[in-house]
């Protein structure tokens, strides 16, 4: 699904592979492989593409919008892994002008997941363990039941402080940031510092 969605998003924005490579800091060869369906992207790659194309992550990974009763079995969901984090996409929820993606997030012991930033607002609720969160130079420590929220465009990182951390990650977007939105065109793709 990533290959099809990536090609479509790039075409809708009128971007060449070279321009997307420059904006995402991902090599042209890697982008070409991803568009051909031959790559296995990491969290870092998908978040970089989300940032460069200014679309929700779920728009790159899936098109299905489930209705009615939704059950997501852990064994049925492909895990998106990064340097320190494993994400399982659970559900995308649309309500009015807002979209919220729900992820099961696990941060591995003795590792840090860095992000240069991406579109949307990031919300994390710790379920188990102690999580170090750094956002734009500010650091906080969270325990079970604690919450943090911040602008996803800011550079940020997650660190498991003394063992693995289990948390719920919510990514919140505006509806006009959707890949399939009529409003999402070249004018929406402003460079962010």
UniProtKB/TrEMBL annotation:
<keyword id="KW-0238">DNA-binding</keyword>
<feature type="domain" description="HTH cro/C1-type">
    <location>
        <begin position="6"/>
        <end position="60"/>
    </location>
</feature>
<dbReference type="Pfam" id="PF01381">
    <property type="entry name" value="HTH_3"/>
</dbReference>
<dbReference type="GO" id="GO:0003677">
    <property type="term" value="F:DNA binding"/>
</dbReference>
<protein>
    <submittedName>
        <fullName>XRE family transcriptional regulator</fullName>
    </submittedName>
</protein>
<dbReference type="InterPro" id="IPR010982">
    <property type="entry name" value="Lambda_DNA-bd_dom_sf"/>
</dbReference>
<dbReference type="InterPro" id="IPR011051">
    <property type="entry name" value="RmlC_Cupin_sf"/>
</dbReference>
<dbReference type="InterPro" id="IPR050807">
    <property type="entry name" value="TransReg_Diox_bact_type"/>
</dbReference>
<dbReference type="InterPro" id="IPR014710">
    <property type="entry name" value="RmlC-like_jellyroll"/>
</dbReference>
<dbReference type="Pfam" id="PF07883">
    <property type="entry name" value="Cupin_2"/>
</dbReference>
<dbReference type="GO" id="GO:0003700">
    <property type="term" value="F:DNA-binding transcription factor activity"/>
</dbReference>
<dbReference type="GO" id="GO:0005829">
    <property type="term" value="C:cytosol"/>
</dbReference>
<dbReference type="InterPro" id="IPR001387">
    <property type="entry name" value="Cro/C1-type_HTH"/>
</dbReference>
<dbReference type="InterPro" id="IPR013096">
    <property type="entry name" value="Cupin_2"/>
</dbReference>
């Amino acid at each position: 699904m990533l290959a099809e969605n990536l090609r479509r998003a790039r075409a809708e924005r009128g971007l060449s592979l070279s321009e997307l490579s420059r904006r995402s800091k991902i090599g042209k060869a890697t982008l070409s492989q991803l568009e051909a369906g031959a790559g296995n992207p990491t969290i870092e790659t998908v978040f970089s593409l989300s940032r460069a194309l200014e679309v929700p992550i779920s728009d790159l990974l899936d098109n299905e919008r489930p209705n009615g009763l939704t059950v997501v079995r852990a064994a049925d969901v492909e895990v998106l892994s990064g340097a320190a984090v494993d994400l399982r996409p659970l559900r995308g929820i649309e309500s009015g002008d807002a979209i919220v993606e729900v992820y099961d997030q696990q941060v591995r012991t003795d590792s840090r997941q860095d992000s240069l930033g991406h579109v949307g607002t990031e919300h994390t609720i710790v379920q188990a363990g102690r999580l170090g969160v750094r956002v734009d130079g500010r650091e906080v420590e969270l325990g079970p039941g604690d919450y943090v929220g911040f602008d996803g465009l800011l550079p940020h990182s997650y660190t498991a402080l003394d063992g693995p951390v289990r948390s719920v990650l919510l990514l919140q977007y505006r509806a006009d940031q959707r890949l399939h939105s009529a409003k999402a065109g070249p004018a929406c793709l402003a460079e962010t510092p």
